[in-house]
Amino acid sequence: MKRGASGRPAATARTRAVEGLRRVLESGERAAPLAGALARGLPAPDQDLLRELLLGVLRWKRALDAEIGDASRIPLAKLAPNLREILEVGLYQLRHLNRVPEYAAVSEAVEHARRSGGEGAARLVNGILRQILRRAPPDEPRGNDLAGLARHFSHPEFLLRRWAERFGLDAALAVMREDNASPRLDLLANPRRVTRDDLRDRLASEGVATEPVPGAPLALSVRSGNPLRSPLFAEGLFAVQDVGSQILPLLLPPGGLLVDLAAAPGGKSLSALAHARMTRSLAVDRSLPRLRLLEQNARRLGYPEILPVAGDFGAPPLALGDFRLDRVLLDAPCSGTGTLRKNPEIRYRVTADAVDRLAGAQEAAVESALRLLAPGGFLLYSTCSLEEEENERVIERVRERAPGVSSVPIESPIASVRTRIGGLRILPNETTDGFTAHLLRRER
């Protein structure tokens, strides 16, 4: 076994994944940024493995725990610190990572347990994993067993019940399957420095395979390789941006000045200018670190027309006097139920009560944004939530108190479903995460 300078065993992708699981679930850290932080100092293949293990276990955690619980003589809640996570990482490799030999997954888990808890812990982990290996993987529950399906796909049962009622069971199952797939990395080709086709060719020459995304004129989806290790990134030829975020500004009618509320890290403002939908953007956000990141991104990509503004999206710090705006975009903080693929930890934090609490803050933010609009101006309200409570119902309640505001039907360049009040909802799919959007117009 490799050892560090101190003589202790060197941390591996698997041991760091165990640490990451505890920090996500016990301290509330976000999984994707934490994976990046924990990966520092590891070889590139181990960095990729760490990310796959941490995010993969979180995507399948309830199903993994069900198998471990059936094979363990000790209840999961009573296992010694780290053992549950060691077992989850080991079992995830056995069930979902064919490239990892079974003996390697079991051996590393046993050795980690030995270092963590001694010989007794090692024997326990070895016994549980080898007992599971003798069994066939669990089958997907059939029929309308919603509790079993929620456990199998590691989703909150209340969400599955809502989705099955609102979208139909087949669509709800498709959403959960997409949520549990490994996400792709999407790029926005910077048209000020390269065409999409040229960028694709230059990345291919460096071993990064991409393909264009239908309906998203500047988007490339990465099939293999890591474009972030390419010098083309530092040169500002592309930004990393989910396809849904690229499409969102295209739902607004073209205009001049865009006010982008809750804007950081700036992808929506970038997309609006890159697609020539707007000519300038005031990018408002209350997080100074995220605004600094926005400013760095705008400088790297060559977009001085994006002006960062520090302020609360619920009370924009814009002294307008009698002046009003024609185009406002509010991509509001939300439950994130359309992003469970990239942010799997949300599954273990979201509740029905939390969704309701968010809706109240979202209503206030929409009303504040509407006050910025001139007659004839448009507000695009969006969330990365699939829930009616944060979308249709927010708009309906706001419109009850704002008689001079109307809903405007919008069309999506990619597959979507219409909400009952003329907005659109994109369910998670192979191309993009899920989101919901509604367009409002101030009549007077």
Which characteristics define this entry?
single chain; alpha/beta; Alpha-Beta Plaits; 4 domains; nine-stranded mixed β-sheet; disordered N terminus
Describe the protein in words.
By secondary structure, this protein is α/β, with parallel strands linked by helices. The protein folds into four domains: 13-133, N-utilizing Substance Protein B Homolog, Chain A (Orthogonal Bundle); 146-179, no CATH class; 186-240, 2-Layer Sandwich (Alpha-Beta Plaits), CATH 3.30.70.1170; 243-442, Vaccinia Virus protein VP39 (Rossmann fold). The protein has 16 helices and 13 strands. It has helices at 13-27, 31-38, 44-71, 83-96, 102-117, 119-133, 146-152, 157-167, 169-179, 196-205, 231-234, 243-247, 267-274, 288-301, 352-370, 392-400; strands at 186-189, 209-213, 216-224, 238-240, 257-261, 280-285, 306-310, 325-331, 373-383, 405-408, 417-418, 424-426, 435-442. Strands 5, 6, 7, 8, 9, 10, 11, 12 and 13 form a nine-stranded mixed beta sheet that branches. A four-stranded antiparallel beta sheet has the order 2-3-1-4, with helices on both faces. Helix 1 crosses helix 3. The longest helix is centred in the N-terminal third of the chain and has 28 residues, at 44-71. It is globular. The N and C termini lie far apart (72 Å). Mean pLDDT is 92; it is low at 1-10.
Topology, element by element:
Blueprint: H1 13-27, H2 31-38, H3 44-71, H4 83-96, H5 102-117, H6 119-133, H7 146-152, H8 157-167, H9 169-179, E1 186-189, H10 196-205, E2 209-213, E3 216-224, H11 231-234, E4 238-240, H12 243-247, E5 257-261, H13 267-274, E6 280-285, H14 288-301, E7 306-310, E8 325-331, H15 352-370, E9 373-383, H16 392-400, E10 405-408, E11 417-418, E12 424-426, E13 435-442
Parallel strand pairs: 5-6, 5-8, 6-7, 8-9
Antiparallel strand pairs: 1-3, 1-4, 2-3, 9-13, 10-13, 11-12, 12-13
